[in-house]
Amino acid sequence: MCLGVPGRVVSVEGLVATVDFWGVRRAVRLELVDEPVQAGDYVLNHVGFAIRRIPEEDIQGTLDLYESLLRGDGDLMAADVRAELEANPEQSPDA
Amino acid sequence: MPEGADSRQLKFRDPARARDLGRALTAAAEAMGRTVSLMHVCGSHEQAIARYGLRASFPRSLDVIMGPGCPVCITDTPEVDEGVALARQGVTIATYGDMVKVPGTVLSLGDAQAEGAKVEVVYSVTQAVELARATREPVVFFATGFETTAVATAAALLGGVPDNFSVLSAHKYIPPVMEIVAEMPGSKVEGFLAAGHAATITGWGVFEAFVERHKLPVVVAGFEPLDILAALVKLVELVRDRKPEVVNMFPRCVTREGNRNAQEQLFKVFRPAGGRWRGIAHVPNGNLRLRDEWAHVDARRRFDIDLRPLWKFAPPALVQDCICGDIMAGIANPKQCKLFGKECVPDTPVGACMVSSEGTCKIWHLYGGVPDLSSSDAPQGEVRP
Ligand code: SF4
Known about the structure:
CATH class of the largest domain in chain B: Alpha Beta
CATH architecture of chain A: Roll
Mean pLDDT of chain A: 74
Strand order of the largest sheet of chain A: 3-2-1-4-5
Distance between the termini of chain A: 24 Å
CATH class of chain A: Mainly Beta
Radius of gyration of chain B: 21 Å
Number of strands of chain B: 11
Radius of gyration of chain A: 13 Å
Order of helices and strands of chain A: EEEEEHH
CATH architecture of the largest domain in chain B: 3-Layer(aba) Sandwich
Shape of chain B: globular
Strand content of chain B: 15-25%
CATH topology of chain A: SH3 type barrels
Number of domains of chain A: 1
Number of helices of chain A: 2
Oligomer: heterodimer
Strand content of chain A: 25-35%
Number of helices of chain B: 16
Order of helices and strands of chain B: HEHHEHHEHEHEHEHEHHEHEHEEHHH
Structural class of chain B: alpha/beta
Helix content of chain A: 25-40%
Largest sheet of chain A: 5 strands, antiparallel
CATH superfamily of the largest domain in chain B: HypD, alpha/beta domain 2
Bound molecules: iron/sulfur cluster
Number of domains of chain B: 3
Largest interface: A-B, 37 and 41 residues
Low-confidence stretches of chain B: 1-11, 371-385
Distance between the termini of chain B: 21 Å
Largest sheet of chain B: 5 strands, parallel
């Protein structure tokens, strides 16, 4: 499922960002993102590429949504989000 | 939401809002006084609809059809054959997981793998490139998916790949197929739900010309059940008011012009070309093929792909009864296929729609078809936590 999971940028090195998805760190490529990205920004990830920098005003809403998804809350979609996080394996930042 | 809808099936984070939206949808649809057919073109939408049992809450007069929105399902048989032929010629094929089981004319990539061919499942194109870096053998990335994944392939190529890496592109572009479905004789579709992630790339503006030409409304929707319900309410209202417009109900991800940077990279590497979508039709501009400048990484031009050895066998007879195409065109549903749940199940799929987690037949099989709780002869929905 292409949820486009959001994550917080920890650091940027060239065209690869280290992004934190609820404690899990992944290398995410930045070639496709719509705006310049820096540490502290939130991005949407799709198959290992950031496809959007989430605008300031939308961050909280998006995070709340995913927080509640990941807590489970008996929500049926939580499994999809977890699967998507797990499907994105650790990538070496020099990829 | 009709009384009696099984509450076990409807676990929303915000049940009150879901109920309100359900009521609004019922009221809007019933006020039409006739059946309204809407189509979505996204496997993730179908998953959410099936998983949350949303169909059981739709009013009877509302028909929500899954169109050609599953990238695996519309990858054409000859495209799978090309991958299989290359694999049997000794090339390593790297591809997304769902592709391995998709039947070709005779063999799937999984069958070829069982015969000893090298087939690797990857999560992203980046992994396929790493695979090539780790070896001298030729590695071909069998690239499937819509514009959302095609942009990743494009970025990887623009970023530089080793000499032994090539791409067999089966990428598809969604907007043109909506034209085909809208023009299909017998099509009852009165409005489209567009997929939020594809629109993140293309922008919602890409649908304006479509709306102008066909006088059919398009609503861009996210993937949360509440997103989908709200978008359906909007779409029924647009049909009712005869307002052919594009409405963006997913503004946190989608803008009018979309992701320009990604679009630029996409079309630097790919050009739209006509081609078949499995079971649907020849779709003008519906395929993404590598441009001439990228001939050196184009598997079709680098390798002599010989399909003849595959044609020595007769195709499995059952395939002729598969109606995936009609299902994706919105004129049939899986229950009308005589193989559904019998000869054709996820472990031994006959058609591509039973393979992918985004395929209509697979989804209906997993979740028990239309979980129609008010009718006793309907298959009971299976509730998965
Ligand atoms: S059930 Fe199987 S054979 Fe029938 S339409 Fe679906 S994929 Fe094709």
